[in-house]
Amino acid sequence: MVNISYQAAIDYCDWLTTVYNSLEKQKYKKVVFKLPSKREWEWAASGGRDKFYYPWGGPYCKNSKGCYLANFCPLEKQYLYKKDTYSSSYNYPNDDRTISRGVDGAIIPTKVGSYFPNAYGLYNCSGNVAEMVNEFGMTKGGSWNSNDFDMKIGNKEIYQVPSPNIGFRVFMEVIEK
Predict the structure, then answer these.
(1) Which end of the chain has the lower number of beta carbons within 10 A, N or C?
(2) What is the pLDDT of residues 27-36, one digit of tens each?
């Protein structure tokens, strides 16, 4: 789900918690569904591995066969130029902002499973759709519209309003087994 507000994501988690906990048959007696903290998101995205830039466990965005490992804008950096110390912009040939779209296999968010999962079996932790965390205005993982830097596990992006680039991943905390 994309283009949703932070509050709507919180409300969805609250609704899901209420529905699950009211079921007659469930695996756990009591759970809470929530947006992850920054630390929880990074732990899940890393697949339990330390010191990797990306969920697939390496420092590169392509595999040994030259295939991209996520849905993002891989060519954006080559058109980036610094205006001054604090601002930058893009200098696209013929002002064609779509020049980087599609070289990774998708031009917009793509279905889950289009790229390999991480060591925990989670898909699209980097690229595709930036994911809200429980800190308002922060996303992790970058989106289909991000460059490789913004997709790194340790980096964040800031947002103010809902966007087609931003969604969320629900985490479940078991309160009572």
Answers:
(1) C
(2) 999 999 999 9
